[in-house]
Here is the input.
Amino acid sequence: MQDLDENTVTEAALAQMVDTPDPRLKQIMDAAVRHLHAFAREVDLTPAEWLTGIQFLTAVGQACSPIRQEFILLADVLGVSAVVNALHDKKARELGTQSSLLGPFYREGAPELPLGALIAEHPTAPLITVYGQVTDNDGTPIPLASVQVWQTTEHGLYDLQERNGEAMDMRGNFRCDAEGRYHFRTVRPLGYSIPMDGPVGELVHRQHRHGFRPSHIHMLIGAEGHRELVTALYFGDDPHIDSDTVFGVSGSLVVEAKDDPASPVPGLQAVRYDFRLAKAAPGETGRVGADPGALMPRAAE
Ligand code: BEZ
Ligand code: FE
Here is the structure.
């Protein structure tokens, strides 16, 4: 009979899991147990604090729905999503455009729109054009690459927040032309607070963090034979550009809207950004995040 204390229980737990047949599950669960035990010892976790943690995670789960993913939000504000993104980027065979968070507001099945279309249904701010070219890493254009975009309105809300997911707005799926060029019209999104009305928001409040993301446009770019790119373009003059609550901003993704005689839409300010896609390794997949509806499908009506 083993005498267990706060240290030896770690070895005992690892020993019970030693026959896990799936080697990756074994590696992940071994490390999770070692780190969780070390964490409890480091902070000398009390029973009341343990229960508070359990209640918090329960509330995070209860806040999830087909249009809201509170667990992804939790991973985002703790910087875990940014770490996983960076690890994923490092595994690429070649260096493409840097990635950024998918976030909890991505939706599959956005409208397919022709190049140049306006993605805003009711714009109340000046329009801008976003344009550029999708190439591979050595600058060769990728014909017909798919470009999915989504953003907040000029008031800082996603369609999922404003209309409970009943209608799609401020998003669209485009197909590049034969030279890999894309362009669309939109309004400049407003930087916004992450959803603060749930358990994750309460935590962020208690940590005296502001909860804001700088103004940005999400882009998800795909093409046959290339690594999918999940990224976003950030407007450099946003007051929160250096303190994004979810750690998504990188210098290489910062843009400005300006007068641009080369823009395909004369008379509108424009953001130009060219994306580079890395070649995919065989069988390579992976996206940090998902449409919340895919993680938790709506119940059958
Ligand atoms: C977003 O950019 O949509 C987002 C990302 C992480 C948390 C909340 C929102
Ligand atoms: Fe966003």
Summary: The longest strand covers residues 127-136. The CA atoms of residues 218 and 232 lie 4 Å apart.
